[in-house]
């Protein structure tokens, strides 16, 4: 009977510990949900800025972000940094365009640290022919920045533009003129 208070104290500690774990898990879930919504909203705002010509999703790229273009297009590979991606894909793409691409978001999905953007984008190439494509970007985010991206799009449409139109224009600013990359 003398050890009864000790068992009761141990039981209380275990109960309080279990409650604290449940609270901590709930807080983590709320934080995760908050981060999901925050990331989704940041990406939504960046697409709206792109649509209006005042910015782009590339503004969210961390300097050391990797960008992978999947598939077999002429630009398909992993670009290890924001600068590499902008210089090797975005600037040459924009140099082929007469008017900027304008996106139309179909859907944004967010889970954990990832936002998936499903959208169409269209513009006019320098040869006055239309360019349009449908894209899916999988964007992994940390602290409000894109740290890793995987892009899926119609590589036939992309390659056709890349081969048909020479990269001649250099007056387009990368943050304002955004291809689907």
Structural overview:
β3 (102-111) and β4 (114-124) form a beta hairpin. It contains three helices and six strands. A six-stranded mixed β-sheet has the order 2-1-6-5-4-3. Mean pLDDT is 86; it is low at 26-31 and 172-178. The chain has one domain: Nuclear Transport Factor 2, Chain: A (Roll). With 181 residues, it is of the alpha+beta class. It starts with a helix and ends in a 17-residue tail after the last helix.
CATH architecture: Roll
Residue windows where pLDDT falls under 50 for at least 5 positions: 26-31, 172-178
Number of strands: 6
Globally, the shape reads elongated
Terminal CA distance reads 73 Å
Strand content: 25-35%
How are helices and strands ordered from N to C? HEEHEEEEH
Q: Count helical runs.
A: 3
CATH class: Alpha Beta
Q: Give the proportion of residues in helices.
A: 25-40%
Could you tell me the mean pLDDT?
86
What name is given to the CATH topology? Nuclear Transport Factor 2, Chain: A
Strand order of the largest sheet: 2-1-6-5-4-3
Number of domains: 1
In short:
It is built from three helices and six strands; from the N terminus they run αββαββββα. The chain is of the alpha+beta class and 181 residues long.
């Amino acid at each position: 009977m003398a050890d009864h208070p000790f068992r009761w104290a141990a039981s209380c500690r275990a109960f309080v510990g279990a409650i604290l774990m449940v609270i901590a898990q709930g807080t983590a879930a709320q934080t995760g949900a908050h981060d999901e919504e925050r990331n989704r909203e940041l990406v939504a705002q960046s697409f709206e800025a792109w649509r209006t010509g005042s910015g782009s999703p590339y503004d969210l790229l961390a300097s050391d972000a990797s960008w992978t273009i999947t598939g077999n297009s002429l630009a398909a590979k992993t670009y290890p940094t924001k600068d590499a991606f902008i210089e090797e894909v975005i600037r040459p793409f924009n140099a082929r365009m007469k008017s900027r691409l304008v996106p139309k978001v179909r859907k944004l999905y967010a889970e954990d640290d990832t936002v998936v953007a499903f959208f169409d984008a269209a513009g006019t190439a320098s040869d006055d022919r239309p360019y349009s494509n449908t894209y899916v970007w999988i964007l992994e985010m940390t602290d409000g920045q894109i740290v890793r991206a995987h892009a899926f799009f119609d590589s036939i449409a992309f390659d056709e533009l890349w081969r048909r139109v020479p990269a001649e224009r250099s007056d387009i600013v990368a943050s304002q003129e955004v291809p689907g990359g």
